[in-house]
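seq as requested:
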Amino acid sequence: MDREVIEQKLESLRRCLKRIEEKCPSSVDNLAGDLDLQDIMALNLTRAIQLCVDIGAHLIAGTDSMPPATMGQTFDVLAELGYINIELAIRMKKAVGFRNVAVHNYEAINWQIVHAIATRHLSDFKDFAQAIVQKSGL
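struct tokens:
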């Protein structure tokens, strides 16, 4: 494991989450009516998810585990290796589902879901980062 790579990705994750917190509107209606906010929220959420997957892939590559076949499986392997608990793995896999919609079918994004993630589930990303720091000794 390259500590510097993990630390850089964790810092990028922190910046994405901060941006989401700073720009998240108070209501879904405000988000649904503001194209710039939609871009900021969707971009930073997809970046945050991708960073978590990248961190996981980097950690897994330093083990004897088989590489995951999907982005979601990255979190299953991290749970098997003891980096995160299974509940967090499940939550992170749901985030990957959102990321896939955002990246591959932007028009179909449900802004209520984006607002819910931004207002009630950013702690999943923070829990992920904390677990990685603790397990990795960073």
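The longest helix spans residues 35-61.
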